[in-house]
Every structure is written in C-alpha cells, then in structure tokens.
Amino acid sequence: MSEDIGTTSKYQTRSAADRCSKVAYLRMKINSDQPAVPDERFGVVLETYVQDEIPKRFSTKHACLSYINNHIRPRWGEFSLTKVKPLAVRDWLRGILDKKGERPLANKTRGHIKGLMHRIFDCAMLWEYLPPDRNPMSLVRIEGCSKRRKKPRILTPDEFAKLIAAVDREPCRTMVILALCTGVRCSELVALKWSDFDWENLSVYIRRAIVAGRVDYVKTEYSEAPLPLDPALAEVIFEWRRRTEFSAGLGPIGWHTLRHTYRAWLGDNGEALTVQKELMRHASIQTTLNTYGGGIMESIREAHGRVVKQAMAR
Length: 314
Hints:
By secondary structure, this protein is mainly alpha-helical.
C-alpha cells in the first residue's frame, strides 16, 4: 500500500519529507501501539483530524478543508501544540483578510475557523497529545461571529410579482415560485425529484441536496421534515408555464433571497414563531428568532397556504 504525499520537487531532501505532516501521520498510524509523542507538531494532529475525524458531508468537509488549507495549516502547521497560544490565535484571526486581500475576513468566517481549531484541540486531548484540560481555544472570542455582514434582501409582494412576471420560461419560473412558497435552500431545490412529492397528502419531502455538483445529505435532520403543498402551488408545479428571465429591474436577487423573503412574510402574516421554525426547518428556534417551542402540522399548513395565496394573487 502506498500513499501520495507530494512531488520530489516539493520534498527534495529526506529532512523535508520528515517535516511533512502527512508523513508524521502515517508513521503514527504504523506505530499506533506506541504512546503519543509529547509536544507534537500541530500539523500532525491537524493531518490526523483530516484523515480520521473531518465531517463526511461533502459541503461541510469542503468548507473545513478550505479553512485548513488556506488559513490554519500555513500559519500553525509547523508549531508544536503547546506553542499555539490563544492570544496569538486571536490576533491572527483579527488580521486575516478576504480572498482579494482588501478587507478583513467576515466575523462569521473567523468564527468558523476558530470553531474548527477548537475541535482539533479537542481531538488532541482525546488522542493524548495534550492533558484533558480546558481547551485553549475556548479563551478566543470572536465578536459578532453570529451576525451577517450584509442585511438579507427581503422582497415585498409587489417585487415578487414583478420578478415572476419577468420569468417567462420553464423550469425557472416554477423553481422561483417553489423556492418562495416553501423556503427551501437552493441546493435542495435543484435536487428535488418527482418521487419526493406526495400528491395524495399534498406534501413534499426534502431528502437530498446538490452541492458543487455532488448529491449530498440535507443540512440537518430537521431539514428532512415534510413540507405542506398548497393546492395552488401544486397546480403551478404541474402547469410548467413557459416563462423565464431574471432581469426584472430589482437589482441582485439570489435563491436565498427567496428563503429570507419566505421567513419575513411568515412574520408579516403574524404566524407563530414555532410555526415559522417548523416551516423553515431550523434545528433550533433561536436560528429563527431567538426563542423556542414547537408547531403542529395543521397550523403549519394554514400558515403555508396563506403565503402561497399572497404570492399567487398577482
């Protein structure tokens, strides 16, 4: 069995190969009966995390590898674990710039990177590279990591009617209506199959997502919950009217604009927060509006029907 660690141009000497984190990881696996090396390099633990513990869901794994390869490994790979200090990590996170190098990285992305380093240090304690003590990354705080850099775009009913009027070819028109009237994510919308629709019970099941051309699991188990299908919406899906054109004079509109609009219209219609949570398929109601509770299917169906009637009235 062989493993590819890189080219000879990258590792021209044995000492260069010895410094490779993947080589150290492979040696550790071969000698798994030996105790963990004290004060091991962070890069070795990082490689072990990538090989054994990284999330399996494609989109999550892709994002984690991006943070690791573009930020974490270049900065901390050669440091010993005990030399990766919280204060240094905090100052480093504050100084990271975006891809263009023009402005600081979004606080939300910094929070993701810090959270990933926290999980790696948890693994280091699990694998006995460090004593099972307080995770040093818990001392690093990223202010505003739960806040968006830009306020989400919310369409008014008139703007949505104008958008639909400008979409004059299928399947784009039906996709736009379905996205607004169900609040599904773009990745879930393009992965829908006819077998996901339960016409007898007027429901649709969100069972998969397509991310970067790959069929993947949905984001959370709550995302798999069936959504009600109003008769008016079911009729639109069957009709497949031939319309399409996204140039509606409304400025930039993305698929997530429709999801945010769906949530906003639910709120404008006075729907209970618990119903909004169920319709948005959020794992926690805090994600919806910083409170908690549960909804019943009949209330969900009635709330869904009111939004569909509002959208289809024009």
